[in-house]
Amino acid sequence: MADRLSVQELRDRRANRWLAALSLVLAAIVWHAIRDAISFETVLRDVPILVRPGEGLTVLDQSHDTADIRFRGAQSDLANLDVERTRIQVDVSSAPSSQQGVRMSLALRPSHVRSPSGARAVRIEPDEVSFSIDREGERHVPVKAAFQDAPPEGYEIGSVTCSPATVMLKGPLSKLQEVEVVHTLPIDLQGRVQSFKVRGSVVPPAAFAGARVDPERVAVEVGIVEHAAVRRLDAVPVRALVRAGPSPALDVEPATVQVQLQGRVASLETLDPAAVQAFVETVTLDRGVAYELPVQIYVPPGVRLHSVAPSSVKVTVRK
Q1: How many CB atoms lie under 10 A from the CB of residue 209?
Q2: Phi and psi based region of residue 101 (left: phi greater than 0; alpha: psi -120 to 50; beta: remaining)
Q3: Is the dihedral of CA 181, 183, 189, 194 positive or negative?
Q4: pLDDT for 139
Q5: Any idea what DSSP says for residue 278?
Q6: CATH code 2.170.120.30 region(s) in the chain
Q7: CB environment 43-76: b (16+ within 10 A), e (fewer)
Q8: CATH code for 229-317?
Q9: Residue among 166, 164, 226, 160 at smallest CA distance from 197
Q10: Would you say the C-alpha torsion 201, 204, 205, 209 has a positive or negative sign?
Q11: What's the CATH number for 136-226?
Q12: Contact, 75 vs 81, CB < 8 A?
């Protein structure tokens, strides 16, 4: 009787094991079904594609710099997605040297995605990136300041100085010789009427990816000068400045002069010619004597005297 009970117990135990295994399988199926039922999807756009070559190498002519990734997961996982902390990283450091300069294409897979979120990458679009690998080199190139807008009317750029005048450009060796100059990000000139100094960020050439500059910023000194126009006034009468009361008769030769004024275009265009006066000082002159006197010019505010011709006149005091 005891032996038959032992056999029965053994059979029961085996049956229980099968039931336990079946339960685990069913639980896994149910878990995946529930997970699929509660999973959500979203697309993270413009995720950077980073192709990592070996040491001393750089990537050239990469077909795409970014890609869109479709993620699947719980809402909490999708909420933690951040394009700033997500990237598509392709390691080609093991590529043989014979591949240098040869166009390569690689499929982008979910395994290339690096993200701190628990969401799972299921699709990448585009799903392929092509590029070339070249030796990295460096050379010094001049740096020039780029500008946007313009100073107000009447002002212009007089001088531009970058310090340092050259930067070290690092990038694909085959492309370096094509670069003659690099530029800063555009510096805004709107409203600038005085010289100024700023720090400008140097932009690597857009022709090839992976280029770097050192230093990344330079000091830019911009000289702003007033753009002066000239207006000529012909036949401005020369007046004599005399004492109050009776005064002797005077002869002025020539009786008129030519005056050239300098200033902003708008100020010169609206100038009333009558506001410009030419005169000579005759208060202390003796009668019957001829004098060569300098011509003095009064100009209204906003403009300045450029020249007067002739600069002196002959003044005779009658007896």
Answers
A1: 18
A2: left
A3: negative
A4: 92
A5: E
A6: 38-135, 229-317
A7: ebeebebebebeeebbbbebeeeebebbbbbeee
A8: 2.170.120.30
A9: 160
A10: negative
A11: 2.170.120.40
A12: no
In one-letter notation, the amino acid at residue 164 is: P
Structure tokens that stand for 97 in this block: 């040297």
Q: Could you check whether the bond before residue 164 is cis, i.e. omega within 30 degrees of 0?
A: yes
CATH 2.170.120.30 fits 38-135, yes or no: yes
Q: Compute CA distances 133 → 56, 57, 155, 169, 294, whole Å.
A: 10, 7, 48, 18, 78
Given this model, what pLDDT does residue 2 score?
A: 47
Could you list the mean pLDDT of each consecutive 10-residue stretch along the chain, which spans 319 residues? 53 64 71 63 94 84 92 90 94 72 88 93 95 88 95 86 95 85 96 94 80 93 87 94 77 95 86 94 81 94 91 88
Q: Mind spelling out the 3-state secondary structure of the chain?
A: CHHHHHHHHHHHHHHHHHHHHHHHHHHHHHHHHHHHHHCEEEEEEEEEEEEECCCCEEEECCCCCEEEEEEEECHHHHHCCCHHHCEEEEECCCCCHHHCCCCEEEECCHHHEECCCCCEEEEEECCEEEEEEEEEEEEEEEEECCEECCCCCCEEEEEEEEECCEEEEEEEHHHHCCCCCEEECCEECCCCCCCEEEEEEEECCCCCCCCEEECCEEEEEEEEEECCEEEEEEEEEEEEECCCCCCCCEEEECCEEEEEEEECHHHHHCCCHHHCEEEEECCCCCCCCEEEEECEEECCCCEEEEEEECCEEEEEECC
CATH 2.170.120.40 region(s) of the chain? 136-226
CA of 179: how far to CAs of 91, 100, 138, in Å?
Answer: 28, 21, 11
Neighbours of 263 (CB within 10 A): 23
CB neighbour class for 116 (10 Å; exposed up to 12, middle 13-18, buried from 19): exposed
